[in-house]
Design a protein that fits this description.
Blueprint: H1 5-40, H2 48-57, E1 70-71, H3 78-103, H4 122-186, E2 190-191, E3 198-199, E4 203-205, E5 212-213, E6 225-228, E7 233-235, H5 238-241, E8 246-248, E9 264-272, H6 278-296, E10 300-301, H7 305-320, E11 333-339, E12 346-352, H8 356-359, E13 375-380, H9 386-392, H10 399-405, H11 410-423, E14 432-437, H12 440-445, H13 454-463, H14 467-476, E15 479-484, H15 500-509, H16 517-520, H17 524-531
Parallel strand pairs: 9-12, 9-13, 13-14, 14-15
Antiparallel strand pairs: 1-6, 2-3, 4-5, 4-8, 6-7, 10-11, 11-12
Length: 532
């Protein structure tokens, strides 16, 4: 029975619709395959070195070392490379393949596993050429549908990028602002115990390859984490990296104390003439701080083995009343300890340099820590004062101290330090000065009457020949305070001559929360009231 015209029409429409549907399926499958292939590999990979070269070419020098070498954040750079890869390179290849399918020339693709480029597909060629008219519609539909998918996907990608970028910028600025505010409020910095260089933030050494990352703030290289060129993942922000990565000095690359630039960093240089009692004072002050920690539940610890060993030596010296070993005149040292724990703690560095270094202008680089000190401790040997020398000349206990102090002028060391500071551009308002009268235990044994209150000590010094320093110091420092100290073990020290008092005063001025002096050394009447 002959097929009617309407039936032919329905058959043709059904075939055409079927071919259109098949073309849409083929186009969608090809597009999905394209995306899957993109996630597995990319023909355009922005490597860390490539990204660094691009940034340097654009003028991003990043100080003396240039930008760090790490994988860029995906939406900062690689996303645009993937866009070019997907929407241009591979789209063109797939389109060419489909066009080749349409004109019947697809199977001229070279088979790398065959000696002949036509061998694999030659037996199918005649069947393909026979049915190629039927494949025109599906092929055209597949091309058009895949192009539409590409356009839609590209539009969605741009929308995502436009949504991500403001969030990226706001997050980076917020995190950087948080770190800057923390650094300003806590007075954090990274100070090197080896070369005394001070920087805003340390460099961090990658645990995987040892490469240095000079700036780990949130940036193009990552918001919360960054990936080193070797693949090692590192946290961003100094507040997090300080406790997980190895911090090193930006200049000499020596390892820094744990927590560097995340905690308050306070530097207290101690200076004075030869044999003035600087090292003995440092040990006694440290003993006093540890004693304070045990009495008032304040954590006093040491950030590294070297500081711990030096502290143990100091404690043994103070407890046994042994003689203090003379400071090495060739290289000054820093004794570091930590008050508190975590980001809320403070790193305190007390620098002790031999008096000879202040007398030789050629060695000024050896005492560069003076320039970055927050508060200075000037140790005055009372036996260099003419008024005191005449009072103790008949006492045997003072003989040795008189011999070592002979011919020395306490104003010389002070003048050399102040000249260096002001000549180097250090402003007076940036530093405080604690003037410490040492060896008061010896003065006491010689029946020398000395005051213990700051203003009274300054008057006492003027009466005994140190009026030039007393008059000049208030104009050369933001604040000056005077202390009389007995460098003995904390448990045996009298409250009024406690060696820790100058250090505590300077620490409080830098924002460290410590008990008041009244709480540390209550007066007898206050103790009676507490007991009552």
């Amino acid at each position: 029975m002959p097929i009617r015209y309407q039936e032919w029409f329905h058959i043709v429409i059904s075939v055409v619709l079927g071919e259109i549907g098949a073309g849409m399926i083929v186009g969608f499958v090809l597009f999905v395959g394209l995306l899957v292939r993109m996630t597995r590999s990319t023909s355009i990979l922005v490597t860390p070195q490539t990204f660094k070269n691009e940034r340097e070419k654009a003028g991003d020098k990043k100080g003396d070392f240039g930008p760090d070498v790490a994988w860029p954040w995906y939406f900062r750079r690689q996303v645009f490379a993937d866009k070019q890869d997907v929407f241009e390179t591979r789209r063109d290849k797939v389109t060419q393949w489909l066009v080749g399918l349409l004109i019947g020339d697809t199977f001229r693709i070279t088979d790398s596993t065959s000696s002949s480029p036509h061998r694999k597909f030659s037996k199918w060629r005649k069947w393909f050429m026979l049915f190629s008219p039927l494949l025109c519609i599906p092929t055209l539909v597949a091309i058009i549908f895949m192009a539409l998918c590409n356009i839609l996907f590209e539009a969605v990608a741009y929308v995502v990028i436009l949504l991500v970028w403001p969030g990226y910028l706001l997050t980076v600025w917020a995190l950087r602002g948080l770190e800057a505010a923390w650094s300003m409020g806590r007075k954090t910095s990274a100070s090197c115990p080896a070369c005394f260089y001070v920087s805003k933030r340390p460099a961090y050494r990658c645990d995987g390859c040892g490469r240095l990352h000079r700036d780990v703030r949130p940036s193009r290289l990552g918001i919360f984490y960054r990936r080193c060129e070797c693949g090692e993942v590192m946290p961003t922000m100094t507040l997090r990296a300080a406790w997980r990565e190895t911090a090193v000095c930006q200049r000499c690359e020596e390892q820094l104390r744990q927590g560097a630039a995340a905690v308050r960093d306070i530097r207290l240089p101690i200076f004075g003439d030869v044999a003035a009692g600087k090292t003995r004072f440092l040990y006694a002050a440290l003993d006093s701080m540890r004693h304070l920690g045990s009495k008032h539940a304040i954590t006093v610890s040491f950030p590294d083995t070297e500081s711990q060993q030096r502290a143990d030596t100091a404690m043994a010296t103070m407890r046994t009343a042994a003689r203090t070993v003379k400071t090495d005149p060739t290289h000054p040292t820093a004794l570091s300890f930590r008050l508190g724990s975590g980001n809320s703690g403070s790193l305190v560095h007390m620098f002790d340099a031999a008096g000879e270094l202040y007398n030789r202008p050629d060695d000024y680089d050896q005492v560069s820590f003076l320039d970055s000190g927050h508060g200075l401790v000037y140790v005055v040997d009372p036996f260099t004062l003419s008024g005191i020398r005449s009072q103790v000349s008949g006492f045997v206990s003072a003989t040795e101290h008189l011999d070592t102090a002979a011919g020395k002028d306490p104003e010389t060391a002070y003048g050399q330090v102040v000249t260096r500071l002001r000549g180097g551009g250090v402003k007076a308002k940036d530093q405080r000065l604690a003037v410490v009268i040492s060896k008061t235990d010896v003065l006491y044994s010689c029946a020398v009457d000395f005051p213990t209150e700051s203003s009274a000590i300054s008057e006492w010094l003027m009466e005994n020949g140190l009026h030039n320093i007393v008059l000049a110091a208030p104009n050369e420092f933001a604040e000056v305070r005077y202390f009389a100290v007995a460098s003995v073990a904390a448990k045996t020290a009298a409250p009024e001559t406690d060696a820790g008092a100058p250090v505590r005063w300077l620490l409080r001025k830098e924002g460290v929360k410590l008990p008041s002096e009244e709480e540390i050394n209550p007066k007898p009447e206050a103790e009676a009231e507490v007991k009552a």
